Amino acid sequence: MIPRTIHYCWFGDKEKPAEVLRMIANWQKHCPGYEIKEWNENNFDIRLNRYCEEAYATKKWAFVSDVARLWALVHEGGVYMDTDVELVRPLDRLLTNKAFLGFEGTQWVGTNLIGAEPSHSFFIELLKSYDHRCFITPDGKPDQTTNVEELTRKLEKVYGFRKDGSFQQLGDITLYPTDYFCPYDYIDGQLHRTENTYSIHWYSQTWIKRSRWINKLSQWMHRLTGNRMK
Q: Cα separation of 48 and 207, whole Å?
């Protein structure tokens, strides 16, 4: 059974904005009795691998958290959530899974909310994959390949999952449709909440230093070409 722990990451040693504090309070409201654990520079080794160390040195906190969330799930188990995820109901029923994920659209598997028992083999392999990567590429630019892309490709390779947005049982990983964890469409700004919805990912995208309309245009173009930006 998945432990009653919610993990989140906060790197960069900056004060949390009011919206992040509101989300954490929301988790406490819907999941009373859960341990809510923050991972930051004080309790996570940013020198775990070269990828993580380089991402931290260049202040790309979201990519540091890509590694830290996997480390937390592998070593402690529980539920990882991004700080722009709002719960609308308790997570208790999901904890009976060995591991669970949810679609983001119909082509990609999201990483904004992940649940797993400790030492789950799939997440161990994902974590190990960062040991052989560099964040700074040979041309001196950051590798901004998203963890969504990495995880989705790994699921295709290991389990051959279908890119159709449907409920799927992939070995001991349960994959839920988009309306469970990602009912908000960041392209058209519409919320498609259903009776199945557990959470809403609001896509704050704080790691992108561009104006809102450029973000939306870029996301739309990437959807047309079958890609996804972080």
A: 22
Predicted confidence (pLDDT) per residue in 1-42, tens digit: 999 999 999 999 999 999 999 999 999 999 999 999 999 999
Binned at pLDDT 50, 70 and 90, residue 211 comes out as very low
- Which residues on neighbouring strands pair with residue 147, listed in sequence order? none
Sorted by where each begins, the domain ranges of the chain are: 3-223
Tens of pLDDT along 157-196?
999 899 999 999 999 999 999 999 999 988 888 999 999 9
- Mean pLDDT, range 64-82, rounded to an integer: 98
Q: Provide the CB-side half-sphere exposure for 27 (13 A, CA).
A: 23
* DSSP summary character for residue 93: G
**Strand, coil or helix: what is 79?**
strand
Asked whether the beta carbons of 126 and 150 are under 8 A apart, the reply is yes
Strand, helix or coil for residue 206: coil
Asked whether 176 and 167 are in contact (CB, 8 A), the reply is yes
Tokens of 43: 């309790």
> H-type helices in 31-176, by residue range?
50-57, 61-75, 121-129, 147-159
If phi over 0 gives left and psi between -120 and 50 gives alpha, with beta otherwise, what is residue 90? beta
CATH 3.90.550 fits 3-223, yes or no: yes
